Amino acid sequence: MEMLLSTKGITICLFFFVLSLAAAIEIPLSVSQLPTITEQSHTQVAYPFDEDFTIKCEARGNPQPTFNWTKDGKPFDLSSDPRIVTSNSSGTFVIQNRGIINNFQGKYRCFASNVLGTAMSEEIELIVPSVPKFPKEKIEPLDVEHGDSVILHCNPPKGIPPLHIYWMNIDLQHIPQDERVSMSLKGDLYFANVEESDSRSDYCCFAAFPRLRTIVQKMPMTLKVSRLKHANDSGSPNAAVTKANFIKERKPKLLIPPESSGSSSSVTVIKGGVLLLECIAEGLPTPHLSWVKVTGNMPKDEPETENFGKTLKIDQVTAADEGTYQCTASNPMGRARHEFHVHVEEPPQWLKKPEGGVYSVGTNLVLLCEAIGNPEPSIQWKLNGMPIDGRTFRGRISTREISLTNLQLQDSAVFQCEATNKHGTILASANVNVLNIAPLILTPDGENYATVVGYSAFLHCDIFASPAADVRWTKDDSIEPLSTFRYQLNKNGTLEIRDTRKEDSGSYACWAANSVGKRAITANLDIRDATKLVVTPKSPRVLKSHSILLKCQAEYDPHLKHSFKLSWRKDGDELPVNSTEGGRIILDRDTLFISSVLLEDQGVYRCVASTALDTAEAEAQLIVLDVPDPPEDLQLSENQNRSVRLSWKAGASHNSPVNESIIEFEENHWEPEMWQELARVPGNDTTALLSLSPYVNYQFRVVSVNAVGRSQPSKPSLRYATPPAAPDKNPENIRVEASEPNEMVMKWEPLKPMERNGPGLEYKVSWRQRGVETDWNEELVKKHSLSVRNVPTFVPYEIKVQAVNNLGSGPEPNITIGYSGEDVPDAAPSGVSVEVVNSTLVKVFWFGIPRDRVRGHLRGYKVSWWKTRSLLDGKRHHPEKHFLTFVGDRNYGMVPGLEPFSEFRLTVSAFTSRGDGPESSPVVFETPEGVPEQPRFLRILNFDKDSVTLSWGLPKKANGHLTGYILQYQIINETHEVGAVSNVSVANRSALSWRLAGLSPSTKYKFYIKACTAKGCGKAATEEGLTLAQGTYAGIYEGISTQGWFIGLMCAIALLTLLLLTICFVRRNKGGKYSVKEKEDLHPDPEAQSIKDEIFGEYSDSDEKPLKGSLQSLNGDIKATGSADSLVDYGEGEHGMFNEDGSFIGAYSGSKEKGSVESTGSSTATFPLHA
Fold this sequence. Notes:
- By secondary structure, the chain is mainly β.
- Helix content is about 5%, strand content about 45%.
- It has six helices and 89 strands.
- The strands form 24 sheets. Strands 3, 6, 7, 10, 11 and 12 form a six-stranded mixed sheet that branches. A five-stranded mixed sheet has the order 1-43-46-47-40, with no helix packed on it.
- The longest helix is centred in the C-terminal third of the chain and has 26 residues, at about 1045-1070.
- It is elongated.
- It starts with 11 loop residues before the first strand and ends in a 26-residue tail after the last strand.
């Protein structure tokens, strides 16, 4: 129960109208009252396989009623048979099945009585069926002639319906039935005429009783059919049969109904039941049965016939089915008819039943009892289960009414009304309780009620009183009337407060009073806050296969927390709490997550919150967007030679309107199964007039497009073939190509398949020399090129190409100018001169060749050069040509990447697409000195505490006469901060070592060495090293040389060395190799290395080895030599372009001398402990 939180001090009272509760509330069992039957059995079957049978009769009343039974209208003593088991305070009894129980069959009635009266049950029929059995009998065989009529009787035993009858043979196979052979409703097997094939000795009738779980079989019957032979017959058997049939032919005769019943009969059927009319006839040929309704119309629902038209069946019979029905059996020999007069009757049904109730002393009583039926039922009144004697009854009694005035307490009784006709009996009881008691309030006192703001509150006050009580409700402690319309008293005494507010909380009292006394109860009402919900997003639109998350935000009264529940529904159906569809839809209290959204996920999602007092809902309309469904039902119309109209039905747009429709076509000759776009139409259009090309066998399809994407294509339309026509256009992109000087190859883009317009496509090619009055040369070709030989070199021609097919020619073609084949130029440029820009770059000038000497399209000029000797040593070089191309008609160019201080020769030639022309006479030029390259290495030979000896190699290329070296050094530390740079000039150009003094002890230095010429100094080689700490050497020597342990250690080392030398000697004698070169590399002599570098200079070993322990960084490039590096790619490509002044931009790839690995990194020298 909901507990109150507060009670307001406002007091209000309301006096309500008098409320009659005599019939509205069941009489409390604590009040004296007549017996009332509450439960009883109806017709019951005592099956032999049941262990017992229960016949129920329960009743209530005060005092507790006692029970009596009658059987077949006579008193029945339940204690008279030990097989009957009874219960205390109950009329129900159980019959135990101990074998023979046939004596219990009959119609029972239960009577429940107390001092106030007697209640009576309806009749309860107990049926005790016997086990059905066919009698054991000997059935004589039936001998009949061909064409005779035969009846095989089944005569099934009696049993509980339904009864199912089957005719089968001894192998339990059904006897075939048709118009000639059929079974009647009673189960007999009828032969309209027999045939020899009907002969058999195992006609068996089976009767099945499903409710008894029993099937019984009759003894087999034998039927023998013989031929009818005429005395003079000597023909074939078939002739005999035909003769017999002719003799036996006869008109139909009705076997059901039999002729003895006349031409008509009456049939009675119960309303609501099933009408079955049956006609079975014999005759030869086999008669055909038909049905008509003679009087009135056939039912609206055509009646069905069964058993090959021999049975007319009407379900749920109504009064409209009453009338005369006729069946007709006919064959070529005649007809037979029978009429059925159908009468529809019905068992009794109530029009008005007597109704009892609670009556106060002095009131009047009227009981009505009316029933209908066919035949009309008879009405009988009973009082306490006994017929009413009008002589002693103080009230008035008639067939349909009983009345009493000025009721007194002793008038309390049970009145029964029975309506009976031949189809059944119905019973109605009316308990008349005459009471005079003070009000009884059945609702407990002090009930606590609660509701939410805005809802209605119902405060119950169930009252029983006789005479009827006046009911009023008051609020808190006041008796002032309630004046608002929100308060309403219902018939059962409940106070309804509509549209509640917070101030409606409080204590209420229900008062009930009549002439005998009064009573009151209190009730407490508390008003809670209403539950509120919001679902976000409200109207989500989501793409198919994407995800959506719905959130349900709820507010509810804290007091309702424990009863608060949340659920989700889709289109009214609740979604399960656990995840569904393999985790695709996940519910987690207030969230609903749908992944991989499908089209069927679209709908209204409702979040439902419920508490003990209210329910709230909020919804979101989920709209799923997807590409449209494919268009459907493509139709072609308005067929023309070059157009057709295509129409279609648009598919579902899936919440995104169709923006446009794309019409595609496929033709099955040139590119079968290749779909191409033909047209586009706005999204609302579902028809388009399509422009078509001749000589194409089209089929079309449509693709719809919306904001989401493209639909799947529609199914293709029917094919539509356009007739052929002459070409509408000529080839395009006509050009002349030639690989030989006296040749002209004319080429063009062929017509596309859709442009051919018809069969037999060819090209008519016309050409003539430009500026020469001559006729056109013409030739028809099927290819898209034509080669013409023996033409002048590089002469302009006028060219035309026209498309032609079997239906005609295309439009007049345009004239294109083309040139015959090219040749190489036959003249060299003149006036070649060179302007030296710096030691590696020169600018070349020349005069172009005359136009008539080019003999083709001038592609540009090629500058070639080669080094002849070095100016440093005068040494001649093997000619190694380099060239650079300059595209276009120009007269200068820049040549980069030359070696300084060298002598070169240079030529210029013109070129066409066919090749290079003759070169100009060579021009000799010299490049000036440049700065030297980096010295090959820089090494530290010796380190002292304040000085260092450095050694370096010659530069790889001096690029001029060396003037000396610049030696630099500076202090560095671990934080990458450096000191000032000190310079030392080495004027002796042949010096390759230097001793630096005045350095700081224990300090790290970085050293630089540059080679210099008159043009300047080149890039420096570097090295790093650390000077010794002051006194380090002496301190160590004096500290350990006089120690005994040191002397022992030295001896041990000497012995170990001797052992190692012995092992090495043994290995060498056994054939092992020990590389002297590897040994020298591992232990180099610094002085010897220095001497080697000084003697051999730039010719030193390119695979130089660093000093042992040094950390040198090797950084060198090995350049490959090219004998004739063409710079055409650089001149005309992405990386080789020239500025306006002709200077070269990008990498130059000329010939290089053999590369070497140069030492440019840093290293830290290590030194021995003893100097």
